[in-house]
Amino acid sequence: MMTLNQNNKNGRVHGKVALVTGGAKGIGAASVRVLAAEGAQVLISDLDVETGQALAAEIGLAAAFFRHDVSSEDGWRQVIDHVRERYGRLDILVNNAGILIAGSIEETSLQAWQKVMRVNADSVFLGCREGIALMKDSGGSIINLSSVAALAGRDDYLAYSASKGAVAALSRSVAALCRRRKYRIRCNTLHPDGVLTDMTRGSLPTGVDPDRMTIDSDPMNRMCRPEDVAASVLFLASDEARAINGVELRIDSGQMVMSI
């Protein structure tokens, strides 16, 4: 069993073990960096081996990489077994992996619908189920990445919106069960509304400058950066949030409260 990260003994998650899915890029990578910087030992889960290994090498002893297909039941059993064997415990689970496929109800194929559901929703179901089995004796924090699209209608991203709605509903059920069974496991969801990642850059119209769409450029803009979401991941992962369970935290720059 590996010795836990001894860096930053005053860190907000010092001595904790974290698993971050989709951890090689975007929100996942930003979360990996901040959790490691604040004292956690972090396992990066992703299908992108080259980028994931490079991130682990960049961080050093506080991080490791594991190739992981989040849509696979066997894949989840393998990664949780790896966490158990390598670290002996799991304190923080960040279900971040996801994909984005455009299409309305009239345009979305069953194949596309099922693909998005497998990656975005099935993976969170499997992660919570397998993660709880390892976490329930010592407790911990599960943080599931949903979206504002789960709370408001998006006609152009039907499958994505539905998958993120499933994540939110599932997370409420997990939070309720863990409380009822006194597992000391908290489960919360984060609901960003446009984050400047490679995935969202690819969905923008040709000729649009993504950097001009962020809140750095104009506070009326909706798009933030991965680090803004990672800051909320760190908070929910830390003992500072020990009384927060079943919450849906919007990271939308106030978009949902605007009436006009």
Written description of the protein model:
It is a single chain. The chain is of the alpha/beta class. The protein has a single domain, classed as Rossmann fold, CATH 3.40.50.720. 40% of the residues lie in helices and 15% in strands. It is built from 7 helices and 7 strands, in the order E-H-E-H-E-H-E-H-E-H-E-H-H-E. The chain has a 7-stranded parallel beta sheet with strand order 3-2-1-4-5-6-7, sandwiched between helices. Strand 1, helix 1 and strand 2 form a beta-alpha-beta unit. The chain starts with 16 loop residues before the first strand and ends in a 9-residue tail after the last strand. The model has no long low-confidence stretch (mean pLDDT 91).
Topology:
Blueprint: E1 17-21, H1 26-37, E2 41-46, H2 49-59, E3 63-67, H3 73-87, E4 92-95, H4 110-135, E5 140-145, H5 158-180, E6 185-192, H6 198-201, H7 226-237, E7 248-251
Parallel strand pairs: 1-2, 1-4, 2-3, 4-5, 5-6, 6-7
Fraction in beta strands: 5-15%
- Specify the CATH homologous superfamily: NAD(P)-binding Rossmann-like Domain
Percent of residues in helices: 25-40%
* Order of strands in the sheet with most strands: 3-2-1-4-5-6-7
Q: Indicate the radius of gyration in whole angstroms.
A: 18 Å
In round numbers, the mean pLDDT is 91
Question: How many β-strand stretches?
Answer: 7
Considering the chains and any ligands shown, give keywords for the structure.
alpha/beta; 260 residues; Rossmann fold; globular
Concise description?
It contains seven helices and seven strands. With 260 residues, it is α/β, with parallel strands linked by helices. The protein has a single domain, classed as 3-Layer(aba) Sandwich (Rossmann fold).
